[in-house]
Amino acid sequence: MNISNNAVVQFHYTLSDETGELESSTGSAPLLYMHGQEQMLPKLEAALEGKAAGDTLELTLAPADAYGEVQANAIQDIQVKYLHGAKKWRPGMKAWIQTEEGQRQVTVVKVGMFKAQIDVNHPLAGKTLTFKLEILNVREASSEEIAHGHAHGEGGHQH
């Protein structure tokens, strides 16, 4: 089966930038996504269209096609109590905050007793990224997955 809308794709990936490898799923469970549900970077999803199990893909994306350029005005003040992921905060640490659009990862710039300055740019903003993917399996989405708008892992519904 080839990747098309509502296909569930199982894959491994390696992500790198100009300085080297940033992360990889190799050695852990493969990832799943449902094609055509805007769950991937648009250019990456477009490059996967028509591929099949056993195919590999290497794609380099400029910042504008990945996580955007770094925005200088993306520094905000927030109360420390709204930072999630650690008990004690230091500049450079990654934190999670709850927004109206859901959870978002931010970088701590400066931290005081009660307030912190955070950078809300995506941690990969401004970077040219290379994705290497190995497609392990492609299958049709179940009616339940289509209704929910995302792929379910082994054992079915996991949320």
Describe this structure in words.
The chain folds into 2 domains: 7-67 and 125-148, Chitinase A, domain 3; 75-119, Thrombin, subunit H (Beta Barrel). Helices cover 8% and strands 40% of the residues. It has 2 helices and 9 strands, in the order βββαββββββα. It has helices at 42-48, 143-148, and strands spanning 7-17, 20-24, 31-34, 56-61, 75-79, 94-99, 102-111, 115-119, 129-140. The radius of gyration is 18 Å and the shape is globular. The two termini are 27 Å apart.
At a glance:
It is an enzyme of class 5 (isomerase). It is built from 2 helices and 9 strands, in the order βββαββββββα.
Question: What is the total number of structural domains?
Answer: 2
- Helix tally? 2
SSE string: EEEHEEEEEEH
Structural class: mainly beta
CATH topology label of the largest domain: Chitinase A, domain 3
The CATH class of the largest domain is identified as: Alpha Beta
- Determine the strand fraction and express it as a percent band: 35-45%
Anisotropy-based shape: globular
Helix content: under 10%
Low-confidence stretches: none
Main sheet record: 5 strands, antiparallel
CATH architecture assignment of the largest domain: Roll
> Which value, in Å, is the CA radius of gyration?
18 Å
The count of DSSP E runs of length 2 or more, i.e. the number of strands, is 9
Mean pLDDT: 92
Spatial separation of the terminal alpha carbons = 27 Å
Family: Belongs to the FKBP-type PPIase family.
Pfam families: FKBP_C
Keywords: Chaperone, Cytoplasm, Isomerase, Rotamase
EC number: 5.2.1.8
